[in-house]
Request: fold
Amino acid sequence: MDRKELTEKIPVHVAVIMDGNGRWAEKNGVSRLSGHNAGMLAMKEIIKRADIMGIRYLTVYAFSTENWKRSQEEVGGIFNLLVKYVGSELAELDENNVRVRILGDWRQVPKAAVASIEKALDTTKNNDGLQFNIALNYGGRQEILHAVRSICERVSSGEIGVSDVTGAMISDALYTGEENGNIPDPDLIIRTSGEERLSNFLLWQCAYSELAFTDSLWPDFTPDEFEAIVHAFAGRKRRFGGR
Ligand code: FPP
Reply:
């Protein structure tokens, strides 16, 4: 049977904090960049499995607004990886009907990466299969601030009054809102590498998300483990504050 038929209990949106590339590199005696490269390979496999499982939205945290504090070499290396990834994978993503979206202030990243992103967005813009969201130069607080400012502008121009501001309006003004086709809030957020915190990821959107943590370092995280976590989630009951 096509596994996409088994979607009844599959979450619509799974978000992943891909943590532990550096520790994986250290453990394996290779450079941090080799760790990120291994992380990229792991990511490719997770996208494929998410698609097979019938997940509609997969969001990965690839580069946070805090990641600029890393060495120039590492930051440059991560963006080079993005360029390499788009170069080698875009055709296959497109063939698989995957739509790529970017969450964050991505126009501020190095030029070559911006060009790759534009190509990926444009090539996949008519696809309606799995939506693969890459959080890039992304920060949850910055995202909320950006949304609040855009709403304040509407208030100060007199378009709307203060009491007209709603939660839905804030959701719409986030990176996950109208500019990216209104991505539903994540049902499940997975973080690898044993750290149990959100690190400024999807702060507004995570209000009712289930959280799952695993000790696996991201490059060691397999599609089977991903699938097992998603199925364990599917067995949990979410009450959204009700009974
Ligand atoms: C966290 O591990 C990982 C990152 C900051 C970068 C994630 C990047 C990739 C998986 C590469 C490819 C992504 C794309 C979209 C091409 P860490 O370095 O914080 O690990 P550590 O905590 O063990 O040092």
